[in-house]
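ugh ok fine here u go
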Amino acid sequence: MNYPYMPKSTALWLIENTALTFEQIADFCGLHELEVKNIADAETYKIQGLNPILNGQLTREDIEKCEADPSARLTLREEIVEAQQKQNKKGVGYTPKLHRQNRLGGILWILKNYPELSDGQIARLMRSTNPTVASIRNKTHKSYSLIQIQSPI
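structure:
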């Protein structure tokens, strides 16, 4: 389930500016219903409300629909959900110099044991590039003589 940015601030704004039930707000913000009640009861809460309409997370029509029907549930807009999913994907991490040689040994091991795999498949598997895999396959890599065959696992 995807939740809005800064859920407690969003919950505070929804409590102060809408007629939504605590259950609807808790479900939308990913909080427990008692936590939402606590936010509503605390007058000296040290957070500032965050308007989900200005952020583009909700529309006024969604809020009005849920105010009219207490069983209806608020949902984030699709653009926000897609942006969160893209943001949560991790890219390729840094490989220390010590382990870079291990990667070459793993590529050589795969080439010896599974010659039917294409260079692209091996490159994706080992987080390398096609030219590196091709140069190891052709035995033209600059440090080919230093590579020790080892299982990539």
